[in-house]
Amino acid sequence: EPGSLQKLLDSGNLTGGDRLILAPGNHGKIVISGLVFENPITITAAGGGAANLDQLVVESSAGIHIRKLSVIPRTVPPRGETLVSVGDGLGIHLSHLSVASTVDSQTWTVPQWRESARDGVFLSGQDVSLTESYIFNVLHGVSSIANGAGIERNTIKNFGGDGIRGIGDDSLYIENTIDTCVDIDDNHDDGFQSWSLDAQGRPGKGVVRNVRVERNKILNGDHRFTCYLQGIGLFDGFYEDWVIKGNTITVDHWHGITVMGARNVVVSDNFVTDFRPGKPGAPSITIMAHKDGWLAENSSVERNIPQPWLGGSSSPFNQAHPGVTLLGNRVLGSPHSGAGTAK
Questions:
Q1: Distance CA 133, CA 261 (A)
Q2: Most distant pair of Cα atoms in the chain: their distance
Q3: Which residues of 77-103 are buried (b: 16+ CB within 10 A; e: fewer)?
Q4: pTM of the prediction?
Q5: What is the distance between the alpha carbons of residues 118 and 98, in angstroms, rounded to a whole number?
Q6: What are phi and psi for residue 113, nearest 5 degrees?
Q7: Pseudo-torsion of CA 169, 192, 308, 300, nearest 10°?
Q8: What is the pLDDT of residues 4-44, one digit of tens each?
Q9: Contact at 8 Å (CB) between 41 and 20?
């Protein structure tokens, strides 16, 4: 019955360990507020059933696992709202979700993208996760300011902004596929982007600590609204104790992997190639000084494989930046060649 799930959530009758199984059909917009369980509850779909929500909001709650639901609204939420939002969560774990502004965006015009695309998933709090989910036809795919977040084995496809935004400390971004941006505005679209904030909320004035970005695939496929996608863009450091390892990046911009402002950052074993010939590109891999001029410290670029940069010898990858060690990197001779030179 429509509305019955929300009534149950608001009833105060749930206890730790309960399992809520949703029947097929649409259950509307669900708001979970102020529910705290030491023994987590689970909300999931009935076996073989397609349970859909118009929107999912979890706020100031703890100990909730949500699985196997779709969140695809029947009508577009107000501008600025996110399809799935976790605010100040603790132990909130989302998995096997399908999240989209619409099932099919093929007929959307650029104005329709601007009017109707909404952000996919927003996470804040501590010990929250999003795993094995499909986020598509959205503005920004996944944005996390949570500390201790786990964003793993998800697919983000057809996004009008950034694929993943990772701002919190002590977080994992592992084995995600970030596939195809859509050019709808002046945003410089990134597969993965992070920036630091200080206590006053000023970008580039703080530190993001202890993050691993590993074994992700970032690629830009063909779309009728062609977008030039950047790979991993860390432009507003400092970034401290990061590992960026084993990612496969096929994009069409000069930022393949760029870190600006690093302390104890390792960029290793990444494969970075150009999606299309010509400018902008080919994508490079570099760690350099902070925008404000502070030098990198104790960081390295090791065993990566990029393509030659169109700018020739001035490529940031081919320059030795203070505080950065280059070791065992190999530049491809061409997009289709294994030949190259070690740097």
A1: 32
A2: 67
A3: beeeebbbbbbebbbbbbbebbbbbbe
A4: 0.94
A5: 14
A6: -60, -45
A7: 0
A8: 999 999 999 999 999 999 999 999 999 999 999 999 999 99
A9: yes
